[in-house]
Amino acid sequence: MASSKILIPFYRISKIQNNTLWESKSWRSRKQQPLQPMIIRPKRLPIGFRPVFSRPIAARFFATDLEKLKRESDTTESDNSASTTGVIDKKHSEVLLYYDHIYPFTVSKSYFRHYLSTLAFPWVKKRYDDKLKHQVLEISSPLPADASMTEFVPLRRDCGAFVKFKYPPDVSAAEFIAKIRENVNANDEAHSNIFSRVINSIWNNSPKVFSVKGTPWIEDLRRFPSSKLSIKFEGDPLTEEELYVLFRRYGLINDIQPGPAEAFIYFRHTRSAISAKHCITGMVLNGGKTTLHIQYVPIQRTNFLVSLISTHTKIAVPILLALLATVAVLIFDPIREWFIEYKILHSRRTFDQIKDNRFFRYLYIPYKTIIDWAYNSYDYIDSQLHEMTGSKPEEEEADGQSVRDLKNESNMFWIERYEKSKQIRLWIMENANTFIIVKGPQGSGKEEFVLSHTLGNDDRLNQKVLVLECSELGKARSDINLIDSTASQLGYFPVFSWTNSISQFIDLGVQGLTGQKSGLSESKETQIKNMFSLATQAIRSITDSDYSKYVNSVERKNKRLKDDEKLEILNPEDFLQQHPESKPIIVLNKFARRADSTQNDFIFPLIADWASGLVQNNLAHVIFLTADVGSISLLNDALPNQVFKDISLSDASMDSSRQYVCDVLKCDDSSLLDRCLAPLGGRMLDLQSFIRRIRSGEDPEQAIAEMVNQSAELITSFFLSGSHKFGTGDSNWSPAQVWVLLKLLSKQDTIGYSELTTSPLFSRSTQTLEILSTLEKYDLISLKRDKGVLDKISTGRPLFKAAFKNIVDDLRIWKLYETDYIKTLVDLESTKIQKMEDELEKIYKIGKVDGRIDYISSKIEASNKKILDYEKKISEVAAFTGQTSSSSFLGIKF
């Protein structure tokens, strides 16, 4: 090009503009015609076209809308860097290159690491970028003279970086870019060992350099790389062939989907799509008529296994429920087991034991000091007032009195039971099938006897105690209340009792979808059994913990001893047999034969089986406290071959009762006190109630009279009024039957079972036993057996004997219930006559039978005579105005 004119040979013309011949890189379908040589003047070429002549000429620059917008917005801004605007400016003597794969490629696929990188400290990130910039400059060297790196923009998400170089005027841009590519390839091979070269050839990990032909948009949106690109056309679209020529240099292409407004290109490798996106996006073609906008297309990944499971409900629902159950067991069961252990180990700790802990002292001592400072002036004034008046504060008197009462109670009232308490401790320390039963009537102080006086006074035994109130479980009125009460007793936490109702609906829905139950809904029996099973694991964990401490202690000691002096380590079974204090003590209070609610009758057999399992596996000592003698049959079923150790607690003697009351009330022994204590009979519950009444200001006679009246009112309202409704099967007695018992027991301390069965109301033995057992359950009477056979009947509480006499001696009450009792007998005889008349009618229909007719006739005549006597007696009762006669009526004295 000595002159500015060039002779162009015969070529296919793509575009002629401004006296310049252009040939497009693409091949559009046009009518091809031969051209004559012509003279043109070289000018700057637009991006995407190359001149026909051999020497390259710089392309003419067409500004895109993005660049125009940037120039307009940059007029009032001082910071126009690429990190702020997302666009890299480029001068005439600069080239913009994209370096591929200078970061580890896993950065783009590891979203978690990408998010963590945003939390890095600014100076750490800047230091890493400077190190990377130095690395890029090193692999691109040596650069031509006067060439330098002017800008470095890293792209961590896409594993690459934009690098802007300034090249010297005597070197063309194409030559400069070619030189850099040669340097990168040479440096990569020079700095790589044989192993790295093999890895790079297999995984294509070597860095590459591409020329940026468009206007890159550096964005940090949450659009992660993929092998699929979306090309949106602003202006005329490109054909499939043109897209292939434009994108092929960046890597292998699997497929191209052209379109009028948007096209899709599928690269074989994600790395190729990243390079193409950064180098071509914003590129202007066809003389400014077409602009390309490229973005990644998110990959929609499909897990065929998950899809198969999720689209088949019969497979998905059971798997989902199994996973939920597994997660619940793995997460919540260890937490629940820890809470059960905590309840067993800390339930009996007192404040005195807790405040000795050093960590507690660190918190409590400063708190107590501040409280003392705050109330110091008040305490001083208060103490001065009491010194002047000569009195003591009420709280101090109450505290001192309660301490003295407790001391007196421990030393005096329980002296009769000291030997029994000592016997229980001896049984526990013997550690031979410690299945202990403590029997006694209600109010006899069984719980206090075991927990306070037997276990509480022994530091070896009071460290691991679990108390279960069985009556609280038996009286639960709903499934949720039962589960919550059981969890509270065991320390089972957290408990989700409401999920049982929800699981029933889920189970119903699953059954409708799959045709079978999911098994998610469990019965309350299963849930309660699971709770006790977890409690067993917690108890085993406690014993294992003690055994581990023992093993560690022996091993430490053996390290200091010679080989012939080393101690033998016992196995867990032998260790627990020799160390009974390592086993927890389970106290089952108010154990009964039947629950208050019949729907909870499974509770007591379940508890008996659970306790027997603990004893058989040598995991715990078990103590049953019961007032229901019939409950022992459940224990016999749980341990059929076990001889139980039992302690029977009776009421205190009159001397002990008198001494106890006198010591607590600080009064002298007197005949008046003896007369008042006689109806109480040494029952601990009633003695404490009597003491509280005396302290409230009542005199002894008034206190005992009020207690008798209250007991009488309880009996009449509950047992005689017929308004008792506690559940199916509980109200199986009649007021007339209770009236018979009241009259008999008001005159005698005990009555024989054979004497009671002479009454027409108790003639059926099966029904009589059920009625008496129910009345014993509610503490109205007490049954005594001889060799397992019912023998004697007495009052449930000694105070009830006085209440029975109070009811029977009341003329108005006596007339009411005596009349009702006689009418019941009349109804009973009338029923007999009706049955016998029906039988006579049947006999007359089948023929004459003289012997049977005479027998039935005599029975009818006898019943008629009884009815006449009963009616006469009703008249006598109605007319009676004085004391009841001592005459006998049907063998019953009244």
From TrEMBL:
Write down the superkingdom of origin.
Eukaryota
One Gene Ontology cellular component term attached to this UniProt record is:
mitochondrial inner membrane
For this UniProt record, give its keywords in alphabetical order, as a comma-separated list: Membrane, Mitochondrion, Mitochondrion inner membrane, mRNA processing, RNA-binding, Transit peptide, Transmembrane, Transmembrane helix
| Pfam families assigned | RNA12
- Note the InterPro entries from the entry: Mt_escape_2_C, Nucleotide-bd_a/b_plait_sf, RBD_domain_sf, Yme2_C, Yme2_RRM
Tell me where in or outside the cell this protein is found: Mitochondrion inner membrane
Tell me what topology the record assigns in the membrane.
Single-pass membrane protein
Chief location bin:
mitochondrion
Mitochondrial escape protein 2 C-terminal domain location, by residue?
A: 417-846
Q: Name one GO biological process term.
A: mRNA processing
A GO molecular-function term, please? RNA binding
SUPFAM superfamilies annotated for this entry?
A: RNA-binding domain, RBD
PANTHER family, per the entry: MITOCHONDRIAL ESCAPE PROTEIN 2
> What is the role of the protein in this entry?
Plays a role in maintaining the mitochondrial genome and in controlling the mtDNA escape. Involved in the regulation of mtDNA nucleotide structure and number. May have a dispensable role in early maturation of pre-rRNA.
Q: Which family does it belong to?
A: Belongs to the YME2 family.
Record-given protein name: Mitochondrial escape protein 2
